[in-house]
Automatic annotation (TrEMBL):
The gene is prpB. Signal peptide: none annotated. Its EC number is 4.1.3.30. Keywords: Lyase. It is an enzyme of class 4 (lyase). GO terms for molecular function: methylisocitrate lyase activity. The keyword Lyase applies. This is Methylisocitrate lyase. InterPro entries: ICL/PEPM, Pyrv/PenolPyrv_kinase-like_dom, Pyrv_kinase-like_dom_sf. Pfam families: PEP_mutase.
Length: 280
């Protein structure tokens, strides 16, 4: 049986510039079993996917630390792959809150986690840089003392539409790297020129979010640029819930049931039920 330390070591080793390893995000045990069966390099939780499964909105404080860590433990329990945790803002504003979350993440067996600078306060949506840095610094210090191969990812959530915004993102990512982050992540990035600029300005493994509309760079292209890691975020959960909602809408408003004509096992190269646990 693979140990938590082995998962951390394997996950840490994946973070190489240009590797562009793919880390999809299951949103429940069933989707985790499917992705485990396909043998990706690693998996990650999705705060949005889990929130939707619980019937609540993401990033509004409706999912607590204990719930998120219990969900992560569920995902870990059905895979031997390393699992990264999407742990939002660390479930609190202070560096001490973030450390408590990191402690829990290591205890449940996560191989790494991300901490974002989005405060969930609509009046001040992003933490001031000095506080954001102190949060990462405290998290890094705890990791280095207790689980050195645990991968701490720091996220800069701000917009990157203008050159000024992109420069501010670079400033934050560099500050997070200097504070001890092992990987950096700016979810708003999707333009090739912007990604190239970030990679040239920030000397740390970079995660790119690919699971969203109008993202047209391939894994090879991202690897050639120097991207270390590709995550899917809520993309798979959004597709699943979107297909479910569209089928329900067809039934209710159209009164027809053509949405069930498609036979997944006949039309898809992989049948999802093949990955589900069967009776011995």
């Amino acid at each position: 049986m693979v140990t938590a330390a082995q998962r951390r070591s394997a996950f840490n080793a994946l973070h190489v510039k240009g590797k562009a390893f793919l880390m999809p995000n299951p949103f429940d045990i069933g989707s985790a079993r499917i992705l485990d069966g396909m043998r990706f390099d690693a998996l990650a939780t999705s705060s949005a996917g889990f929130a939707w499964a619980r019937g609540v909105r993401d990033a509004e404080g409706l999912i607590g630390r204990d719930d998120a860590l219990a969900h992560a433990a569920d995902i870990i329990s059905v895979t031997s792959l390393p699992v990264n945790g999407d742990l939002e803002n660390g479930f609190g504003d202070s560096p001490e809150d973030v450390v408590e979350t990191i402690k829990g993440a290591i205890e449940v067996g996560l191989a790494g986690c991300s901490i974002e600078d989005y405060s969930q306060d609509p009046k001040i949506p992003f933490y001031p840089l000095d506080l954001a840095v102190e949060r990462i610094k405290a998290a890094s210090a705890y990791v280095k003392e207790n689980a050195p191969e645990f991968v701490l990812t720091a996220r800069s959530e701000g917009p990157v539409k203008s050159e000024h915004e992109l420069d501010q993102t670079i400033k934050r990512l560099n500050a997070f790297k200097d504070a001890g982050a092992d990987c950096v992540y700016a979810p708003m990035l999707k333009d090739k020129a912007q990604i190239t600029k970030i990679l040239g300005a920030v000397d740390a493994p970079l995660n790119i979010l690919a699971g969203r509309p109008n993202f047209h760079l391939t894994r090879k292209e991202l690897g050639d640029l120097g991207v270390a890691r590709i995550s899917i975020g809520s993309g798979l959960a959004r597709l699943a819930y979107g297909a479910f909602t569209a089928a329900a809408e067809d039934m209710k408003d159209g009164g027809s049931f053509g949405c069930f004509d498609r036979d997944p096992s006949a039309e898809m190269p992989v049948n999802f039920e093949d990955f589900m646990k069967a009776k011995p």
